[in-house]
Amino acid sequence: MTYQLFSIPIAVSARHVHLTEEHIATLFGVDVTLTFDFNLSQPGQFAATERVSLKGPKGQINEVRVLGPARANSQVEISKTDSFLLGVAPPIRQSGDIENSEAITIVGPCGEVSLTQGLIIAKAHIHMHDDEATQFQVSDGDLVDVIVESERPITFHQVVIRVSPHFKLEMHIDTDEGNASNLSRGYGVIHKLERGELYG
Predict the structure, then answer these.
(1) Would you give the distance in Å from CA 16 to the centre of its chain?
(2) What backbone phi and psi angles, to 5 degrees, belong to 135?
(3) Please, what is the Cα angle at 108 between 98 and 95, to 5 degrees?
């Protein structure tokens, strides 16, 4: 079995919301555009100053960050711990894969939006540029192990590789995964296993 080892940066992604132009207008007002706060690690993506509340059957989470720019479909990403607070059962999915996912209500200062689907727990993934995928000998959709050496060493299994000429190298995990490894930001090592030998 062949192993390829490469060090990669890791960032913890807190709960957040992506919105369509229509839903931005409903939540914040007609003709409102998202207000830039700071750039995110991925080129063209930014954190907005706008915040919303998430309302579920059991509870509500306030001051949830909205990310920009606007998207074709609204999507909410939370952790498993968040799901207990809200009383929902979102699937673990890649970003953008919201078909038949969980429902959630988003509340803004000017209105609310009830999504029939769109709430997910984001699957751990690694963004990388095409050139880095070539260097690391991986392809879009490959699954890898990532070993994190921290005060609480941990290995993440079945981490999805996502390749695009618009991406910058970085692995994203959620707050539960960050807490499990006692990590807020750091580095991990990709431990690549050929598809089929372990995962099928």
Answers:
(1) 8
(2) -65, -40
(3) 20
**CA 92 remoteness from chain centre:** 10
Cis before 69? omega within 30: yes
Residue 56 CB contacts under 8 Å (≥ 6 apart), including other chains = 85, 86, 87, 88, 104, 105
Share of the chain above pLDDT 90, in %: 77
- 73, two tokens: 């479909």
C-alpha 43: how far from chain center: 15
pLDDT computed for residue 20 by the predictor: 98
Contact 10, 155 (CB under 8 A): no
pLDDT one-digit tens code per residue, 100-153: 999 999 999 999 999 999 999 999 999 999 999 998 888 999 999 898 878 888
| 71, pLDDT greater than 60 | yes
